[in-house]
Amino acid sequence: MATLTMQVPDISCGHCKAAIEQAVGQIPGVVTVSVDVAATSVRVERADGVAVASIEAAIVEAGYTVGTIAGV
Ligand SMILES: [Cu+2]
């Protein structure tokens, strides 16, 4: 299990939170995803085989821009 945090500066409200949590939550191997609206960050707990790029791609596909990624 590994945890990472991505900064997503476009996050502004509960809709953003729901959209990103749904998009990332659908990725096989993602255990938990939690969006902190105030911090504009996304925290993802995932199985070891899940590529960071697939998480980033899901967020981009949902319409957001990914900034700094920590914990990779
Ligand atoms: Cu929003």
What key attributes describe this structure?
single chain; 72 residues; alpha+beta; Alpha-Beta Plaits; four-stranded antiparallel sheet; 4 strands; 29% strand; binds copper (II) ion
Structure description:
The protein is of the alpha+beta class. It has helices at 14-25, 52-61, and strands at 2-7, 30-36, 41-46, 69-70. The chain starts with a strand and ends with a strand. Residues 12-13, 15-16 line the site of copper (II) ion (CU). Copper (II) ion is lined by residues 12-13, 15-16.
- Class by alpha and beta content: alpha+beta
Label the CATH architecture. 2-Layer Sandwich
Q: Portion of residues in helices?
A: 25-40%
Q: What's the CATH class label?
A: Alpha Beta
> How much is the radius of gyration in Å?
11 Å
Bound ions, cofactors and other small molecules, one mention each: copper (II) ion
| Shape descriptor | globular
Instruction: Quote the distance from N terminus to C terminus.
Output: 11 Å
Total domains, how many?
1
The description of the largest β-sheet is: 4 strands, antiparallel
How much of the polypeptide forms β-strand, as a percent range?
25-35%
CATH topology description: Alpha-Beta Plaits
Looking across the biggest beta sheet, what order are the strands in? 2-3-1-4
Q: Kindly state the number of beta strands.
A: 4
**Total helical segments:** 2
Element string (H = helix, E = strand): EHEEHE
Low-confidence stretches: none
pLDDT average, as an integer?
Answer: 97
